[in-house]
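--- STAGE predict ---
source: upstream dedup step, 1 unique chain passed
mode: sequence only
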Amino acid sequence: MAFMLIRHKVKDFKTWKTGYDAHQPKRTEAGLTEKYLLRGADDANEVVLLFEAQDVNRAKAFTDSSDLHEKMEEIGVIDKPDIYFLNE
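--- STAGE serialize ---
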């Protein structure tokens, strides 16, 4: 089983979450299933996401896509995400 872990900061969690939820079909298309969406205990605008990934190559293609980068900018991601691909 493969996973993808992402950490990034957002300008405003509520605004980000609305845009994130609207982008769900693209994550499904990439074979990603959200397992956890967590917020920093000291900074509620720091977001950590854990996804189960059906195929690591599809997940990597998704993270490299211009569609995702444009969406992240649009919904207020304010730093470069840390992205990790993991195996069980």
